[in-house]
């Protein structure tokens, strides 16, 4: 897989078979809502891992949308024609769908969206217009194999309050640490680190960068590692992780 390149040149990430299986067998997918997943991402991007392996490793279908450029009308038509039950959209695409093709989203049982800060306005629009659709705001770098945490808005919990990074996926740990690797107190900004079985092996052909970003995990079992995301975050008073910004001033355009 390759990173988006938003902080420089795209980096090849060595995601292992175990990483993919850990993602595909996460307990969240047991709901059955991901039995027909829309697949349109280039194979070099990490979202294709979800689009292909989550449905296929549970007996479902990946509905391939062979489009070089995403067209909102074609997306909506594919959802209707093939009975798509779930899809992942970057936050920019989710926002566009909410504005111009929200009725198409109502055919989905579940939507995952991420890659940038989610628009509360777009989220409210979809929740209001698509009462039977669960929307999941996801967070995760390629180095953690697509998703490492999520905040779900189900048919029972439709209120849009605080948007945060949510709870971790199975077998995933998240830490907010200061520059001495000490846990940051609630309300204090630190750098976000991710640990667990979703972590990639490192960067392809870049051992120095791998050693810099994938470090020993002092809070895990011997030999375990954690990934330095470069994202700044803090714990709020409710025990939730709030995204603050980037440590390296990285800027994203349209979710990439």
How does the SSE layout of this entry go?
Layout: H1 17-24, E1 36-39, H2 47-56, E2 61-64, H3 72-82, E3 86-90, H4 91-100, H5 102-105, E4 110-114, H6 120-129, E5 134-139, E6 149-153, E7 167-168, E8 172-177, E9 190-196, H7 207-213, E10 214-216, E11 225-235, E12 241-246
Parallel strand pairs: 1-2, 3-4, 4-5
Antiparallel strand pairs: 5-6, 6-7, 8-9, 9-11, 10-11, 11-12
Helix pairs in contact: 1-2, 4-6
Please describe what this structure looks like.
It is a single chain. This protein has about 260 residues and is α/β, with parallel strands linked by helices. The protein folds into two domains: about 15-170, ANL, N-terminal domain (Rossmann fold, 3-Layer(aba) Sandwich), CATH 3.40.50.12780; about 170-245, Roll (Luciferase, domain 3). Helix content is about 25%, strand content about 25%. The chain is built from seven helices and twelve strands. It has a five-stranded mixed β-sheet, sandwiched between helices. Strands 8, 9, 10, 11 and 12 form a five-stranded antiparallel β-sheet that branches. Strands 1-2 form a two-stranded parallel ribbon. Helix 2 links the parallel strand 1 and strand 2 (about 60-65). Helix 1 (about 15-25) crosses helix 2 and helix 4 (about 90-100) packs across helix 6 (about 120-130). The longest helix has 11 residues, at about 70-80. Mean pLDDT is about 90; it is low at about 250-255.
């Amino acid at each position: 897989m390759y990173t988006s390149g938003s902080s420089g040149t795209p980096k090849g990430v060595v995601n292992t078979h175990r990483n993919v299986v850990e993602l595909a067998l996460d307990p969240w997918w047991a709901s059955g809502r991901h039995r027909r997943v829309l697949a349109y991402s280039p194979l070099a991007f990490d979202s294709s891992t979800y689009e292909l392996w989550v449905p296929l490793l549970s007996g479902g279908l990946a509905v391939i949308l062979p489009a070089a450029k995403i067209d909102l009308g074609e997306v909506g038509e594919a959802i209707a024609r093939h009975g798509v039950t779930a899809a992942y959209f970057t936050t920019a695409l989710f926002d566009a769908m909410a504005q111009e093709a929200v009725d198409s989203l109502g055919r989905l049982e579940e939507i995952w969206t991420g890659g940038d800060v989610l628009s509360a306005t777009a989220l409210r629009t979809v929740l209001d217009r698509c009462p039977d659709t669960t929307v999941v705001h996801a967070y995760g770098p390629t180095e953690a194999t697509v998703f490492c945490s999520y905040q779900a808005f189900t048919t029972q919990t439709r209120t849009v309050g605080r948007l945060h990074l949510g709870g971790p996926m199975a077998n995933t740990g998240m830490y907010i640490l200061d520059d001495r690797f000490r846990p940051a107190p609630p309300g204090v900004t630190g750098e976000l680190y991710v640990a667990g079985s979703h972590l990639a092996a490192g960067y392809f052909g870049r051992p120095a960068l791998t050693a810099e970003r994938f470090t020993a995990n002092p809070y895990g079992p011997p030999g375990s590692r954690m990934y330095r995301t470069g994202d700044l975050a803090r714990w709020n008073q409710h025990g939730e992780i709030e995204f603050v910004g980037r440590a390296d001033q990285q800027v994203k355009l349209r979710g990439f």
